[in-house]
């Protein structure tokens, strides 16, 4: 009898393994779940019937058959109901993904139900939200770039038409034309820089650098402009700051951008300070000024492309709103962080960090 039981167990196990492999070939999850439900009921039923045929009389076999048939029918019904529910949720997720693939960026999947499907739905919705944000940002970028390109092009066209109509001499408009061309070139170069940052194709060589010397160089380069604006330019350097691993020319570009912005927004008799300090395994550089400060709630937006503090889209201040976006890309490409905050006594404070260590 023990030998017979072992034979039945081995046969059931082998049949179940073979059937499971066959179920994987079914084309849909719905069919696989239905097949699994049938398999989970049919194998124990066959084993019970085969054992009952040997162990009991025929009358008892009928009882065993009735009980097994009832329990197996209930199991099949429950399994089919569960499989249908799971398949229905998967269908809704598939429908949402099809809508998203078709261009409907507002498509969202259900995020309730079993944990795995709920997590899958939430992940899908986060992806859809990110895609919608990216497309919105692209539209805003195209609109903003078109605006900033249109203004100098219109100025150049107007000056050329005036020269062509004999209303002005070429020499009279030579300097303004050069200014507008330089402005266009700078804007196009900034857009290419952002494209390289987005594509992860920013070329830089990280090497060991002392930021103190770099800060002093940047401050010296802007002292003349600070005197012209009657703004005090200060530096507070921690001489114990460690060597950092960075691309010096890119860090210098970031710092010059921050200093230029600070000088531009600091009134006469104001102060702009550069602070270099150590923080655990990184070095922090902060540029703070005594200007009008950062509007509340815009600490993150100032790093958006083409964003300006006022609602008027004008480049009269000389900036196209790309400098801080490029600065963020350059800092993050070197493993650092950059952020802005309101000063404790007014003004703005923009900081960035660079990891410490040898190259």
Count of DSSP strands: 7
Low-confidence stretches: 310-318
Outline type:
elongated
Q: Which strand order does the major sheet show?
A: 2-4-5-7-6
- Quote the average pLDDT: 77
The CATH topology name of the largest domain reads: Heat Shock Protein 90
Rounded to an integer in angstroms, the radius of gyration calculated over CA atoms is 35 Å
Proportion of residues in helical segments = 55-70%
Main sheet overview = 5 strands, mixed
Order of helices and strands: HHHHHEHEEHEEHEE
Please report which band the strand proportion falls in: under 5%, 5-15%, 15-25%, 25-35%, 35-45% or over 45%.
5-15%
Distance between the termini: 75 Å
Q: Could you give a short description of this structure?
A:
With 359 residues, the protein is α+β, with helices and mostly antiparallel strands. Helices cover 61% and strands 12% of the residues. It is elongated.
């Amino acid at each position: 009898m023990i030998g017979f039981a072992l034979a039945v167990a081995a046969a059931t196990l082998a049949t179940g393994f073979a059937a499971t492999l066959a179920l994987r070939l079914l084309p849909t999850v719905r069919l696989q779940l239905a097949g699994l439900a049938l398999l989970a009921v049919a194998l124990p039923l066959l084993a019970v019937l085969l054992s009952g045929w040997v162990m009991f009389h025929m009358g008892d076999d009928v009882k065993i058959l009735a009980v097994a048939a009832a329990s197996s029918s209930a199991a099949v019904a429950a399994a089919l109901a569960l499989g249908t529910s799971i398949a229905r949720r998967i269908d809704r997720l598939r429908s949402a993904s099809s809508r998203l693939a078709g261009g409907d960026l507002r498509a969202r999947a259900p995020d309730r139900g079993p944990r795995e499907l709920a997590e899958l739905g939430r992940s899908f919705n986060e992806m859809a939200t990110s895609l919608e944000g990216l497309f919105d940002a692209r539209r805003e970028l195209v609109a903003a770039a078109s605006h900033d390109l249109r203004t100098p092009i219109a100025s150049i066209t107007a000056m050329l038409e005036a020269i062509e109509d004999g209303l002005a001499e070429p020499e009279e408009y030579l300097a303004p034309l050069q200014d507008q061309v330089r402005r266009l070139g700078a804007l196009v170069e900034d857009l290419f820089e952002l494209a390289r940052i987005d594509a992860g194709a920013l070329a830089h060589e990280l090497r060991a650098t002392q930021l103190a010397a770099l800060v002093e160089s940047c401050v010296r380069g802007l002292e003349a402009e600070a005197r012209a604006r009657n703004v005090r330019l200060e530096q507070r350097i921690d001489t114990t700051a460690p060597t950092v691993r960075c691309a010096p020319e890119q860090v210098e570009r970031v710092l010059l951008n921050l200093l230029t912005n600070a000088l531009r927004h600091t009134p006469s008799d104001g102060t702009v300070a550069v602070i270099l300090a150590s923080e655990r395994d990184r070095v922090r550089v902060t540029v703070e000024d005594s200007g009008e400060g950062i509007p509340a709630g815009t600490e993150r937006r100032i790093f958006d492309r083409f964003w300006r503090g006022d609602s008027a889209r004008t480049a009269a201040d000389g900036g196209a709103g790309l400098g801080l976006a490029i600065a963020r890309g350059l800092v993050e490409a070197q493993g650092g962080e950059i952020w802005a905050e309101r000063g404790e006594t007014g003004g703005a404070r923009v900081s960035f960090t660079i990891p410490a260590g040898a190259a």
